[in-house]
């Protein structure tokens, strides 16, 4: 996934024949690649699930008795389903929202094939993790001091700056290497958050 971010640097008009006198030069566009590393979703089966039966009859399953759940690994798309007897199911590991829903539906069908009266309901994307690498390093100490309202930096606890955004709702970890991880409720928020943070960190490159 790629997003275009406008560089805050305005090209200077120094004898450029293509520039129009009295008009500002166009902002430089930078394309940033965002890697969606994990999509977490949940749904309800609306029936009681016998975890022991699932563990005995399912493929690629592990019964974690101490946690009161069964984990089921699925392929195509790859994801791991965490299944509770109450019928709540949380799927992790998908790389897109579409794959997350496909994986959740496949889990529901697998349980139906075991004889459970599963009704696929209340599906929602809970959390998305995205990773983006800025094309420059970042002076994170100066950045955190300049953005005290939203940023916190405790180098003895974590090497990155934690930056929180209210709109779009997102939490970012900003590293001096230029790497940024972003956690948000949906992929759209990840994209908007990266577009929001780019000009801010660009000042401290």
Question: How would you portray this structure in words?
Answer:
With 205 residues, the protein is of the alpha+beta class. The protein folds into two domains: 2-36 and 128-202, TATA-Binding Protein (2-Layer Sandwich), CATH 3.30.310; 46-119, 2-Layer Sandwich (TATA-Binding Protein). It contains four helices and eleven strands. Strands 1, 2, 3, 4, 5, 6, 7, 8, 9, 10 and 11 form an eleven-stranded antiparallel beta sheet that branches. The protein is elongated. The chain starts with a strand and ends with a helix.
Structural class: alpha+beta
Helix content: 10-25%
Give the integer mean of the pLDDT values.
90
User: How does CATH name the architecture of the largest domain?
Assistant: 2-Layer Sandwich
Order of helices and strands: EEHEEEEHEHEEEEH
What is the count of β-strands? 11
Helix count equals: 4
Going by CATH, the homologous superfamily of the largest domain would be TATA-Binding Protein
Oligomeric form of this entry?
A: single chain
CATH topology of the largest domain: TATA-Binding Protein
CATH class of the largest domain, please? Alpha Beta
Any idea how many domains? Answer: 2
Shape: elongated
Low-confidence stretches: 9-27
- Beta fraction: 35-45%
N/C terminus separation: 23 Å
Gyration radius from CA atoms, angstroms: 23 Å
What kind of sheet is the major sheet? 11 strands, antiparallel
Compact summary:
The protein is α+β, with helices and mostly antiparallel strands and 205 residues long. It folds into two domains: 2-36 and 128-202, TATA-Binding Protein; 46-119, TATA-Binding Protein, CATH 3.30.310.
């Amino acid at each position: 996934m790629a997003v275009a971010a406008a560089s805050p640097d305005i090209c200077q008009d120094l004898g450029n024949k293509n520039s129009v006198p009295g008009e500002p030069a166009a902002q430089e566009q930078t394309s940033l690649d965002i890697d969606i590393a994990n999509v977490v979703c949940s749904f309800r089966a609306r029936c009681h699930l016998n975890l022991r039966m699932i563990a005995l009859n399912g493929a690629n399953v592990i019964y974690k008795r101490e946690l009161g759940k069964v984990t089921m690994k699925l392929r195509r798309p790859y994801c791991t389903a965490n299944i509770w007897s109450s019928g709540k199911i949380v799927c992790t590991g998908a790389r897109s929202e579409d794959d997350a829903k496909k994986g959740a539906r496949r889990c529901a069908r697998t349980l139906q094939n075991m004889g459970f009266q599963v009704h696929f309901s209340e599906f929602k994307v809970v959390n998305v993790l995205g990773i983006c690498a800025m094309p420059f390093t970042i002076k994170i100490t100066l950045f955190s001091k300049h953005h005290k309202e939203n940023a916190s930096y405790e180098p003895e606890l974590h090497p990155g700056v934690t930056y929180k955004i209210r709109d779009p709702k997102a939490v970012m970890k900003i590293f001096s290497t230029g790497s940024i991880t972003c956690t948000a409720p949906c992929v759209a928020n990840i994209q908007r958050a990266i577009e929001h943070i780019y000009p801010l960190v660009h000042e401290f490159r």
